[in-house]
Design brief:
Length: 78
């Protein structure tokens, strides 16, 4: 019986999480397009690109820059 109770509670929590995500999807999308998200994403993408170039000795710098630009287009507001 305890396992059934646990499964029921897990299902209820999963439904609540899904409902929360559905209700707040627009807010999450707006947050990803904010000025603050732009600054944070730029810092992370710059760091990742620098690391990739360091690890590869800059051998793939052009490809790294292309990937960084494509990711940046989808995050933040610029």
């Amino acid at each position: 019986m305890a396992a059934e109770d646990f499964m029921k509670k897990a299902e209820d929590l999963a439904k609540q999480a899904g409902d929360f995500i559905s209700e707040h999807a627009d807010e999450a999308k707006a947050a990803l397009k904010s000025e603050q998200a732009e600054g944070i994403s730029d810092s992370i993408l710059d760091g990742a690109a620098d690391l990739a170039n360091k690890v590869t000795g800059g051998k793939f710098a052009e490809q790294v820059d292309d990937v960084r630009e494509n990711l940046d287009k989808n995050l933040g507001n610029q």
